[in-house]
Each structure stands twice: as C-alpha cells, then as structure tokens.
Specification:
It holds the Pfam family AHSA1. This protein is α+β, with helices and mostly antiparallel strands. The chain has one domain: Alpha-D-Glucose-1,6-Bisphosphate, Chain A, domain 4, CATH 3.30.530. Helices cover about 35% and strands about 30% of the residues. It has 6 helices and 8 strands, in the order ββααββββββαααα. It has an 8-stranded antiparallel sheet with strand order 1-2-8-7-6-5-4-3. About 30% of the residues are buried.
Length: about 200
Amino acid sequence: MDIIDEITRTHREVRHSGETKVVQLVRHYDTVVEDLWDACTSAERIGRWFMPVTGDLRLGGHFQLQGNAGGEILACEPPRLLRVSWVMGEGPASHVEVRMAADGDRTRFELRHEAVVAPEFWDRYGPGAVGVGWDLGLLGLALHLTGGEKVDEQHFHETAEGREYITRSSRAWGEALRASGATDEQAAAVTAATTAFYAPPAE
C-alpha cells in the first residue's frame, strides 16, 4: 500500500452554521460491507486498527476508547448505520455518524463528525483539528483491511512518511475549509497550525 496515496482516496467536506461545525469524510474500501461493519463494531478488531475499546457495544450502551473519547451508542442498524455521542474529557458531547453501503465489490464509507466548537479554537485550527485525526484512523482501517501493520501513533509523526502523510492531510482539510467559504489566508493559517500540532518540528 502507498500510504501517501491514501490521502487522495478520501473526499473531505466542511459545513458550519454558527459554532456548529461538521466535517465529513467519504471513501471506498475494497471489501464487502459486512466485513467493514465488523471491523468498525467488533471490539477485538477496533483495537487492531484504532485503539482499545471497552464497554457495552450495543444500542444504548456506553463505550470508552483507551486514552481518548467515550460516549453512548445512539443508533445501530447493521450493516449500514452507526451513530454515537463523542465526549473528550470534560468537554461537551459531539456526535459521530458512520454510514456504509455496498458499491459493487467495494463498500462506500462515510463518516460525519458534528460538534459545537469555540470560535477561538476553530479560528486557530479549523477542521483539521479532528479531520487529521480521522484521516489517521481511516489509514489504520485501510491497513487493517489489507493485512498491513497498525500505525505506531506515538512515533508515526517522527518518520518521514508519517510527517508527509500528516502534512498532506492538513493541507487537504485546509482546502476543504477554503471550499466552504474561508479565505486563502484563513485556510493557510489553520493548515500551518494543525500541521505543527500533529507533527511538531523536531527539536
């Protein structure tokens, strides 16, 4: 797999109304919908490409990703729809929705993350604050589905390939923000800040 090429496989979109922001990622995976659904809902498989998860993984149950977000499973309609609340620390809940659909011998995958974002945070980082994180997650999913090894999240940004992937992801989210109505200057500023956050310059 060409990891850098994975960036171009995803369509990114940004929508906003006041402080409510939505980032959306759409791509295809070369597997059947049942397999992709299992990869995204089985605790054992989630831990192999994303991060360890605990909890009651059924409708109405609560989950916790190790060292990350937790929430409640709000909708679960196998193998096409999963919707959860998404809570990080003491912050307000946001919502993540995943939709899947068979498309020939592939599966169309759509992830939508909606959140209320403080203006100062959005103005600084834009959609890449969560968008780059989701790109990294979907890269892990792609590697899992093709038998590749899980990305080392702690050190990926220290590798040349990792820095290039993060930089291109951040730029792609800057372009998505510009397409949503931001100026070139705004898109460039949030791209630089997001890139520096995920892949800080080596000391």
